[in-house]
Design goal:
CATH class of the largest domain: Mainly Beta
Oligomer: single chain
Number of helices: 2
Number of domains: 3
Strand order of the largest sheet: 2-11-10-4-8
Largest sheet: 5 strands, mixed
Order of helices and strands: HEEEEEEEEEEEEEEEEEEEEEEEEEEEEH
Structural class: mainly beta
CATH topology of the largest domain: Immunoglobulin-like
Distance between the termini: 107 Å
Number of strands: 28
Strand content: over 45%
Length: 427
């Protein structure tokens, strides 16, 4: 069964995306149409087919294929639909043109006519109108027997009037098994359509602290088609693009917690609604523990260049990649050098340790005492971790300054001693 579903998905994926790779590129508009229709009624639809390639297409073929479900990823699949059944939706659909040529950058309007039979069952009926460039000959590529076909589909979703019922449920909400410090945290929400017509379930995910009940706000960030800056949302939106779920089908919607992370134990509550149905909810509890320790931060001084070595131990549950820098300060606290941590540092998995080496090509620096401080930043919570090491020698100037300081201290102590002695005599 898994292999069968995989093949169905692979074929559907080919039908929808192969044109991206082809030099004979066909585009269509609209890519999806939803039509309400009564039994016995006829409706029409115009689909524009456009040749975006540099070559002429001499034989663009129009076809119709039925489907009755969607995969969990949202692709149309044909699950045991009988194409020879008189009630099959493919028998309802005719088209005005097939086998037509298209010049480069030329478009053509194709009329699609849908006639629902008088005894059409109420509910959803689904088809994809396919356009493909096919050779007029047998189209065999050499002696391999493989026909090279490029296809693009316009989805047709029909709603036949009558006894329509919409009902659905959230089967599950899950958080990703692995959380990475440089990525948003994905949730997968599986919605099941138990009705007899397609629906667009929409909703959101709220994150609350499990212990206190406090809601974590500003968790979503979205870019609109014309937006120059992202829109911040207090919740994580589910099915923002309005994808359909077909009758008897499950669909997984992926939504991401994209900002304002913090450590703790949390509850994610998914709420979705569809049509006039009552909202449905599902919850999952999870924990974010982003924490690391830095051990053995050292410097290896070499001729002309040096390197820093340190060990990171991941004590949390987030796959971590440190960002940040190493600062070099002199004896007076002034920063004299800065080395950024590489952006491609290896990740360290929860419970593991990893050793790192950061090269430092020294510029001309006077002899003296220095302090190197590693400023590490965690990817999600932006908390910082630090470690430092001192290196270098005290110069002659340092000895002079130190000697003068000792003399001053000794002088002050001598004056205090004399003052106290004089006071004792007067008493």
């Amino acid at each position: 069964m898994k292999i069968r579903n995989f093949l169905k998905l692979a074929l559907s994926t080919f039908a929808f995306f192969v044109l991206v790779q082809s030099t004979l590129a066909i585009s269509i508009s609209p890519s999806r149409t939803e039509i309400d229709i009564d039994p016995g009624e006829t409706k029409t639809l115009i689909i524009t087919v456009f040749n975006e390639g540099d070559e002429e297409m001499d034989n663009v073929v129009t076809e119709v294929e039925a489907f009755n479900k969607n995969s969990e990823e949202g692709y149309p699949i044909n699950d045991e639909t009988d194409e020879n059944n008189a009630l099959s939706v493919t028998k309802w659909i005719t088209y005005s043109d097939t086998g037509f040529p298209l010049l480069s950058n030329e478009g053509k309007r194709v009329t699609i006519t849908i006639t629902a039979p008088e005894d059409a069952e109420p509910g959803g009926k689904y088809a994809q109108i396919l356009f493909s460039q096919r050779p007029k000959t047998d189209g065999l590529n050499g002696s391999t027997g493989i026909v090279v076909v490029s296809r693009v589909a316009s989805l047709l979703l029909l709603k036949v009037s009558g006894d329509i019922y919409t009902t659905g449920e959230i089967e599950s909400i899950k958080i990703a098994e692995e959380i990475k410090s440089d990525e948003a945290i994905p949730f997968s929400v599986t919605f099941r359509n138990n009705g007899n017509v397609h629906i667009k379930p929409v909703g959101d995910i709220k994150i609350t602290n499990t212990k206190t009940g406090r809601e974590i706000i500003d968790t979503g960030s979205y870019m609109g088609s014309a937006d120059s800056i992202p829109t911040i949302s207090n919740t994580i939106i589910i099915n923002r693009n309005g994808g359909n779920v077909l009758p008897g089908s499950n669909r997984i919607f992926i939504s991401q917690w994209s900002q304002n992370f913090e450590n703790g134990k949390f509850t994610a509550t998914a709420t979705m609604s569809y049509g006039e149905g009552i909202p449905v909810t599902k919850q999952v509890e999870f924990e974010i523990d982003e924490s690391v320790k830095i051990d053995k931060f050292d410097i290896n001084i070499l001729s002309g260049s040096s390197n820093f070595t340190f060990t990171v131990k991941n004590t949390g549950n987030v796959i971590e990649r440190l960002t940040g820098f190493i600062s070099i300060t002199n004896a007076f606290g002034y920063e004299v050098a800065k080395i950024d941590l590489p952006e491609d540092m290896e990740f360290v998995n929860p419970g593991d340790t990893k050793d790192y080496q950061i090269e430092w090509i020294k510029t001309d620096m006077p002899e003296g005492s220095y302090k190197a401080t590693l400023h590490g930043e965690l990817g999600l919570t932006k908390e910082t971790v630090k470690a430092s090491v001192r290196f270098g020698e005290i110069t002659n100037l340092g000895y002079v300054i130190g000697g003068i300081a000792l003399l001053i201290i000794a002088g002050l102590l001598f004056l205090l001693f004399r003052k106290k002695r004089k006071a004792n005599r007067n008493a």
